[in-house]
Design goal:
Strand order of the largest sheet: 1-10-7-12-5-4-2-3-13-14
Radius of gyration: 20 Å
Shape: globular
Distance between the termini: 47 Å
Helix content: 25-40%
Strand content: 25-35%
Structural class: alpha+beta
Length: 304
Amino acid sequence: MSVITDWTAEKARAFTRENLSFQHGLHERPMFTDEGLADALDRYPRHALGVFTMGQDPVAWDTWRRGMAGDLSGAQLLEAAKAGRIWLNLRAANQHLPDYAALSDEVFADKAAHAPQVKTFKRDLGLLISSADAQVFYHLDVALVSLWQIRGHKRVWVYPVAEPYVSDETLEKIVLRETAEQFGYRPEWDAGAEVHDLTPGRMVTWRQNAPHRIENGPMLNVSLSIEFMTPAALLRANVIYANGVLRRRLGARPRVHAGFTPPALAKLAVARAAKALNLQKPNPKVLPPTFRLDAERPGTLLPA
């Protein structure tokens, strides 16, 4: 049985190249009940668990804060998500949990069966458990992404990969890891966005590097965030990397070349050489933990 239940020939041709919405049946699986989620939280390496909170203003992306789960059990973490305003990110769950590895294999086998022209690698299936009304601020990803809704409702705004929503310079900074994936957002940009209301059994995927933001409905949300690369996506990332190097080293004003063209392949060589020579030093800002979850009062945040 197909994981995605509404493949069409048009969607298969457009997969990874356009913003698309699909239906799926993953929300019906017992691994996503309270008991299944608590078990996954208990088995997932605690040092890898992302625990975050945030403010309510979608413009104030600097209110995104990292915290610590301490020795709370999986059931306690789930109760904290139900009672508070937190976002739990089990990134690359497919690399740590055998059942999520099997799920990842199933999802990508389904994609390969229906869109065989798309060759995927660097697969990262993450589990997201988040509180009522929580949000993820305006940001973009280097990889291709699909967001699968399992429980609850969320709204996703997807913006064009173009000015004013994102500049070439911002793309380069993110790919070069000079800055975080979050960056400035203006509410009037919503007029140019695609809006997707995700309910259990809905999935949305968007063009590579498309800025987006997310707001949960007034209930616990559970989603899967699945990132992956394709040869074309990896080439695009390397072209952007090379553009950043050329802008910084030679004062050039390069543009992003699409497809496997001679200019793009030349920039692939530039990117590989720059990485081999370590010309660009990544400077990712790692958020220090500023809070910890209270074991006695679910959802309460204490100073770290």
